[in-house]
Amino acid sequence: MKQPVDHAREVALRVLLSVTSAAIPEVPDLAEAVRRFEQVEFEVPAGDETDGFLFQYGHANWFPEPTFVLGITRQLGVGEEGSVEEYVQVQFEYQYHYDAELDQLKSPDSWWFRDGVTSFAVWFDSVLRDPVWDVIRKRVPVAFEVTEEVV
Predict the structure, then answer these.
(1) Which positions ≥6 away from 96 have C-beta within 8 Å?
(2) Strand partners, 146
(3) How many CA atoms lie within 13 A of 131 on its CB side?
(4) For residue range 51-109, what is the model confidence (pLDDT) as tens digits?
(5) What's the predicted TM-score (pTM) here?
(6) Which of 150, 32, 39, 53 is nearest to 110 (CA)?
(7) Cα–Cα dist 113/75, whole Å
(8) Helix, strand, or coil here: 12?
């Protein structure tokens, strides 16, 4: 049964909790939660790019302290059949203290969409091979959030 888009964050939190109860999940646990979250179908309009994921990271200037964020976002279209009025984005986000080593990393801003030719498994495996994971593996996140935003 397809889920309403307005429940996407709740679904993401339930999926994450089914994998781990840690306030800041380990990367393998987050990866498993993302894989499970991708399997949940949502009520999105038919059409291109109405259900997808974004992997990105970099300096975030909206926190009081310099912060490096790494996020995996699911973007879901909202609207009538064939037309998207807005998108709901549910993001799993690690936050780290910002420093010079992290400043050297350049985000790929990598998108995947359900209607594309690449499978989610292939795309997500490439995400998990990104060099950022080797750098952050030596660090302790200062926070982890699951957020929802309408864009």
Answers:
(1) 67, 68, 69, 70, 102, 136, 139, 141, 142
(2) 92
(3) 8
(4) 999 999 999 988 999 999 999 999 999 998 778 899 999 999 999 999 999 999 988 89
(5) 0.94
(6) 53
(7) 9
(8) helix
